[in-house]
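The protein record passed on for reference:
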Amino acid sequence: MSYTAFLILILVVAVALILIVMVQNPKGGGLSSSFGGGGAQSLGGVQNTNNFLDRTTWTLAIAMFALILLANFAIPREGANNVNLDNTLDGIESTVPAENNAPITNDSIN
C-alpha cells in the first residue's frame, strides 16, 4: 500500500473514533440511554449498546495504532539508499582549542 492510502485510512479511522467517542457518555446520557425507552428490548438493551460502543472504540483505537505503525514503513524515502555514511565526515577540518599558559589572576577574571 502507498503512504497516501495509509493516510486516508488513518483519517477515516480517526473520524470514526471521534464519532464513536462523542456518542458515548460516561454518565449514561449518550446514545445508549436513548435506547432506554420502549425500543430498547428490540435492540438488545442498554448494556449491549454499551458493550458494542466499548468494543468499537477499542477496535478503532487498535486499528489506528496499527495503521500509524504500518504507515511509517510506507513513507517514501528517495535517495536514502544512496547515502554512504562511511564518508560523511570527509573534508571536515577538526579544530583543537589553543593552549593558554597565562596565569589566572583577579584582573583576568573581571
Remarks:
- Residues 36 and 69 are 39 Å apart (CA to CA).
- Residues 1-22+48-75 form one domain.
- Confidence is low (pLDDT under 50) at residues 37-43.
